[in-house]
Amino acid sequence: MKIRIFSLLLNFFIIGQISAQSAECVIIRVSYAKKASGSESRLSIDIGKSTTHSLYGKIKNLEDSNTVQITNEDGKLIIFNNEVDLMNYLFMLGYKYISYFHTVIINTEFHNFILIKEKL
């Protein structure tokens, strides 16, 4: 019985590893600040530490302006200052919305959107 359970767990682990290697994800983090002119989105994007991610070396989180900068395939810099435009761009690159979660870090609320793209 213990061998059967161990075998099942091993199979799930192997299948999970194969699936993880056939897709990549990004997390878009958004917080909001109140300004005299309304509210402001503060964006960042997280691709993890993998150097094989398709966006590796192409994105920058610009903390001074709370925006995300992406270098497209033509070498053009695109700056995003709101989450809708950033998500629409990532959708054009083949990413799909998977999930959302909310976090609070040092009294700052973050809205986190997980997107995933199947590797070809």
Record keyword descriptors for this entry.
single chain; three-stranded antiparallel sheet; 47% strand; four-stranded antiparallel sheet; 25% helix; globular; 120 residues; 7 strands; alpha+beta
Produce the secondary structure layout.
Layout: H1 2-21, E1 23-35, E2 38-46, E3 59-62, E4 67-71, E5 77-80, H2 83-92, E6 96-105, E7 108-118
Antiparallel strand pairs: 1-2, 1-7, 3-4, 4-5, 6-7
Description:
Helices cover 25% and strands 47% of the residues. The protein has two helices and seven strands, in the order H-E-E-E-E-E-H-E-E. The protein has a four-stranded antiparallel beta sheet. It has a three-stranded antiparallel beta sheet with strand order 3-4-5. The protein starts with a helix and ends with a strand. 9% of the residues are buried.
Largest pleated sheet: 4 strands, antiparallel
Question: What portion of residues belong to β-strands?
Answer: over 45%
Task: Name the overall outline.
Answer: globular
Order of helices and strands: HEEEEEHEE
The DSSP helix count reads 2
C-alpha termini separation: 39 Å
Give the low-confidence spans. none
Q: What radius of gyration results from the CA coordinates? A: 18 Å
Relative helix content: 25-40%
Number of E-type strands: 7
- Please list the strands of the largest sheet in the order they lie side by side: 2-1-7-6
Structural class: alpha+beta
Mean pLDDT across every amino acid position: 84
